Amino acid sequence: MKKTLLTILTFVVTITAFAQDLPTNPEPGKCYVRCVTPDVWVNQDVTIQVSPAYKKLSTVPAKFTTATEEVVVENASQRLEVVPAVYETQTFEVVVKEASQRLEKIPSRTETVTETVVVKEASQRLELVPAVYETQEFTVVTQEASQRLEIVPAVYETQDFTVVTKEASQRLEVVPAEYGTETRSYKKREYGTSIKVVPASFSSNYQVVEVKPASARWEMSDTPAADCASSDPNDCRYWCYKSIPAQNITVNTTELAADASYVRTPDCDPATSGDDCGMGTYTVKVVSKPASTRVIDIPAETKTEKRVVMVSPPTTRVIDVPQKTKTMKRVVMVQPPTTRVIEIPAETETVTRTVIIPESTRVVEIPAETKTLKRTVMVTPPTTRVIDIPQKTSTIKKTILTEDSKVVETIVPAVTKTVTKEVLQTKGGLTTWKEVDCKLVEYNDLNINWNLGSATLTAAAKAEIDAKLLPVLADGVSVEIASHTDSRGTKESNLALSERRAQAVTNYLISKGINSSRIVSNGYGETRLLNRCADGVSCTEREHLVNRRTQFRVINQ
Question: Membrane-spanning regions, if any (predicted)?
Answer without folding.
Answer: none
